[in-house]
Amino acid sequence: MPPEVPHCRPLVTPLVQFSPPQNLPIDYKYCRGRKRMNITIKKLLPVLVLILSSFSIIRFLFITFTTSSSSTRLPTFSTIFQHIPSHEPGGSSTNHPKASANAITEKEFQLLSNLVAQKSPCNLLIFGLEPKYLHLSQINAGGTTIFLEDDISKLSTIKANSNSTRAYKVEYQMPGKEAYKLLKHVRQNPACEPSSGPLQASKCRLTLTNLPQEVYQQKWDVIVVDGPSGDAPEAAGRMATIYTASIIARAGNTTYVAIHDVHRMIEKWFSWELLCDENLISSKGKLWIFRIKGQLNSTTFCSARPVVIE
Q1: pLDDT tens digits, residue range 145-193?
Q2: Residue 188 belongs to a domain
Q3: Concatenated DSSP letters for 24-87?
């Protein structure tokens, strides 16, 4: 029968020799660390069991709490934002219609408002009624501001004042899909020249002859073209408003004409053709501002034609 071997680490020759204490059994000499380790583990075992049990209880309580909480539906982003009012300068947030995707930006509006502030008090004519434009009439305190708008719902947002601010309902008949033909018509028809005579009696197809009389009679300092919407081929385009603005501007001494949405083909082409690149003085984003000097006796709009259309 083989001899019993103590359950301890095999003897390894140490790098430095020590003399073991005398009169001690061999298994006590080399296995006393194991006995102490066994004693330590036995003492720690109940503590470990208690910690694991506590962790299990805490985890169970956490799962129960989160499950019951998730049963209550939280509000979505859309629900929260429905109760946040929008604010526009110079007016009540509850009365403004929803801004369109092509609405003037803050930087564009800052450029335009700076122009009006420099000229105020002045005569300000605006084709289109966006919420921010109501603030322009406040900047132009002491002057005259007239809005021309084809959307009746937008006209309800403004309170007319016979002394300074007025708004008129107008009609536009020319769809955007006819822009190409109308641009050729302007070039080929002498009735569309700046020297062709009063707008009310004009034979040019692009002339707006149904505007309020004071629009034709007044000398305008600033004209803004941001209407009609012109956002679809079938919708009314801005060919007539840009043409009419260019003729009205040439009837004054010096008139500043601002055209919005010049990233679109119609606004860009008709601005180049009727207001001229040589008159462009500033721009920001989709807004161009032209300075037009009075020249009703001229037979042409620009010194050079920018685009050739056959």
Answers
A1: 999 999 988 887 776 555 689 999 999 999 999 999 999 999 999 999 9
A2: yes
A3: --HHHHHHHHHHHHHHHHHHHHHHHHHHHHHHHHHHHHHHHHHHHHHTSPPPPHHHHHTTS---
Same domain, 55 and 151: no
Calpha distance 30→40 (Å, rounded) = 18
Contacts 24+ apart (CB under 8 A), 172-175: 172/208, 172/228, 172/236, 172/237, 172/240, 172/241, 173/236, 174/205, 174/206, 174/236, 174/237, 174/239, 174/240, 175/233, 175/234, 175/235, 175/236, 175/237
Same domain, 189 and 286: yes
Give residue 86's Cα distance to chain centre.
Answer: 13
**Whether 281 and 207 share a structural domain:** yes
pTM of the model: 0.67
